[in-house]
Structures are given as C-alpha cells and as structure tokens.
TrEMBL record:
Organism: Sphaerimonospora cavernae
Name of the molecule in the record: Uncharacterized protein
Domain of life: Bacteria
Length: 54
C-alpha cells in the first residue's frame, strides 16, 4: 500500500496543526471509522483510478 501511495502523491508534505476543538478531535481520531470497513474498493484501486483518470 505504501508504494502505491508514494507513486500517486507528491512527496511534499507540510505539518499543519489544526487548533481548537476540531483539531483535538482530528488528533484523537474522531474522524476515523471504528467499525468494520465499508465499500468494496481498495486503496490500490482508488489510487489507480485517480492517476489514470478512469
């Protein structure tokens, strides 16, 4: 998965700290799914479709 990600995303990454309650929620993982993943696409397929324009 890492190889696909590095091929699809530019290497420039900037650390951005979001302040306040929203930032605290993001840092604690409140935006992530806790249960079983849903859907049928894989990360690899998403990146392939995104980079090939499919």
């Amino acid at each position: 998965m890492t190889a696909y990600t590095l091929d699809a995303i530019p290497p420039l990454r900037l650390p951005i700290r979001v302040p306040g309650k929203v930032g605290k929620a993001y840092r604690s993982g409140a935006n992530l799914t806790l249960g079983a993943p849903t859907g049928s696409d894989t990360w690899e397929r998403f990146l392939t479709d995104r980079t090939t324009g499919a």
